[in-house]
Structure formats: structure tokens, C-alpha cells
Design a protein that fits this description.
40% helix, 25% strand, 2 domains
Length: 322
């Protein structure tokens, strides 16, 4: 979206009027649901219940009492949030008016401003072919403007080696020493293995995966001869989209990739928001906050594991993880 390539002040002012003000009023009590568990003060300890998060087990007390105990926290303290941003070449794809990069900029701008308006700190790490830039976590509107300026300054990468999010997530984990809220924003078109590294982050930090995609990545239209290019390698291939068999094979491969993505998010133990280039950002964030809230409220009624939410548009997948 070309309108995003404007002065950071103008962009943020527009988002504050068109998006953030709507979210401020509509999120209401769901604000803490969306940002649950990032800033924590120890309040008490109690015996473990089947629905409890195993990350909060107090092993010292458990060893003394011979019964599992968990720590309870107050969540009133300031949140520190990190945005882990995949800026590899495939993020520039967008067959309609909005590219995945444009949605990334809008999402980060909105969420960073929502957080800093409540006195929280946000930081950013960028991935090109490695973790190549970091903006330390700070608060305030001027800091959000600095982030937007850095996002706009990132050039498109015409070619790159295969994206390796595993290396990016492991590097980020080593930097984030204190517990934080983490948003991993990517299309997750990467070499395999990233789910283990993301799961490592999720064991220490409250983590949400934001998966960017374009509808044409899952369905091939019937538009005749088309030159397709791999965004990462630049390899080109002329294909005949009139071929019904080709379109069926494309959709089958896309469906297999989508199923693998769901399994990977579940294996990593993270909630996931799948954000299309055609989505209404406000409606999608509100729906995601609602689903996270429902999952947390129902957790105590579903013993034996966590329920992880993956949201695509208006579709919800509820995945059980032991």
C-alpha cells in the first residue's frame, strides 16, 4: 500500500484516528486478554490444578512439599513487548492493493501505539537474512514514530538465501533476558525447524505468532499464462493457469502447507493470528482478543492440556496440546 510510504507522523496520526481509537473503545476489558501475562509481580503460591500453565510451577516449593505448586501473579506492572519482524523478500508479495509488508507496518504501528499509550515499552528486532537490526524497548509516542521510520527505511530485498527463522528466533531469545510479550510477525515461509525455536521463546515469554499471507498464496486463479517468480530466489517459471489439473495440485499443496502451519504453531505452543492482506485489521484484532479470552476462561473446564487458538479471518481453529 503506497499510502504507508508516507511521513511517519502522518501515518501514525491517520492510524490513531481510523484504527486505534476504535480499538481503544471496543477492546475495553479484552485489553489484558490480548496482552496477558507479560508484566508480572508475584502475588502468591498455591497447589497446581490441571488447567494451570506449567511455566508457573515453583520448583523449589514443589521439591519441599512433594506436591506441585504454582506461582500466582499480579499483571498490573508495565509490559515490555518485542516485535520480531521477518523482512525477507517474500514479505513484499501482495497481489491486491496491500502487500504483506504493508500489513506488517500497520499491525506493528497499531499494536506498538496501543501498548505505549498505556505506559508500556516496545522494542523491535528485524530479520533480513539474519538478525541485522534492533531497536531497544522504550515507551512513548516518539518511540513509535522512530519504529515506523525504521520500517519505512527498510529496503526491499530483491534476492536472498533461504529464509531461516530458526536462527532468527534463537538469536532473539538470547537477547530477551527478562520476561516479555513477544509478537513474531512473519509469513513463516522458512526452512524447517523454526517451530522448535519459537517454542523455546514461548516457554519464557508470552508469545503470539502473527502469520501474514495473501489469498493468492492459497488459491490459483484461472487467468491464462502467467510468469511466476520465487520471491526468495528469483527463479521464474511460466505456468498455464487454465490447466485445471495444475490448479488442483496447487491447491492441494497449499492445503498441505496450511495444515503443517497449524501443526507447527501448536507444536510451538503459541496462539496464532493469521492476517491476510485483505483483512480488516480492527475486526480481526477484536475477534482474536475475544477468542483468547474465551480460551482462557474455558481453560479451567478442560483439564489435561492447553487449548491454543489460531484465527484466520472469521475462521477459528482450537488445537489441544498436551
Amino acid at each position: 500500500m503506497s499510502s504507508l510510504k508516507q511521513n511517519p507522523e502522518a501515518l501514525l496520526r491517520r492510524l490513531e484516528w481510523t484504527v486505534i481509537r476504535r480499538l481503544d473503545g471496543l477492546l475495553a476489558g479484552d485489553y489484558r486478554t490480548l496482552f496477558r501475562g507479560a508484566g508480572l509481580d508475584l502475588a502468591d503460591v498455591r497447589e497446581y490444578q490441571p488447567h494451570d500453565d506449567v511455566r508457573y510451577i515453583d520448583w523449589n516449593i514443589t521439591a519441599r512439599m512433594q506436591v506441585p505448586y504454582v506461582r500466582e501473579y499480579n499483571v498490573d506492572r508495565e509490559i515490555t513487548a518485542w516485535f520480531l519482524l521477518d523482512m525477507s523478500p517474500s514479505i513484499d508479495f501482495g497481489a491486491f492493493e496491500t502487500s504483506k509488508r504493508a500489513m506488517l507496518i500497520r499491525f506493528v504501528s497499531v499494536m506498538a501505539r496501543l501498548l505505549t499509550r498505556n505506559g508500556n515499552r516496545v522494542g523491535v528486532m528485524f530479520y533480513g537474512s539474519e538478525l541485522d537490526q534492533m531497536i531497544p524497548a522504550r515507551s512513548g509516542r516518539s518511540h513509535v514514530l522512530h519504529i515506523i521510520k525504521a520500517l519505512n527505511a527498510r529496503p526491499e530485498m530483491p534476492r536472498a538465501v533461504e529464509t531461516d527463522l530458526e536462527d532468527f528466533f534463537r538469536s532473539a531469545f538470547n537477547i530477551m533476558k527478562r520476561r516479555a510479550m513477544v509478537f513474531a510477525v512473519s509469513d513463516f515461509l522458512s526452512a524447517p525447524g523454526w517451530e522448535q525455536a519459537l517454542g523455546h521463546i514461548a516457554r519464557r515469554h508470552e508469545t503470539v505468532a502473527i502469520r501474514l499471507y495473501d489469498p493468492l498464496e492459497t488459491e490459483m486463479p484461472d487467468i491464462g499464462m502467467v510468469m511466476m517468480e520465487d520471491a526468495e530466489t528469483g527463479e521464474q517459471l511460466l505456468v498455464d493457469t487454465h490447466d485445471a489439473g495444475l490448479r488442483r495440485r496447487f491447491m492441494a499443496l497449499a492445503q498441505a502447507r496450511e495444515e503443517h502451519m497449524l501443526e507447527a504453531f501448536a507444536a510451538a505452543g503459541v496462539d496464532a493470528l493469521e492476517l491476510s492482506t485483505t483483512d480488516d485489521l480492527v475486526e480481526t484484532l477484536l475477534r482474536f482478543a475475544e477468542l483468547r479470552g474465551k480460551r482462557i476462561r474455558l481453560g479451567s473446564e478442560r483439564g489435561g492440556g492447553n487449548r491454543l487458538t489460531t484465527l484466520r479471518g472469521k475462521a477459528e481453529h482450537d488445537v489441544s496440546v498436551a
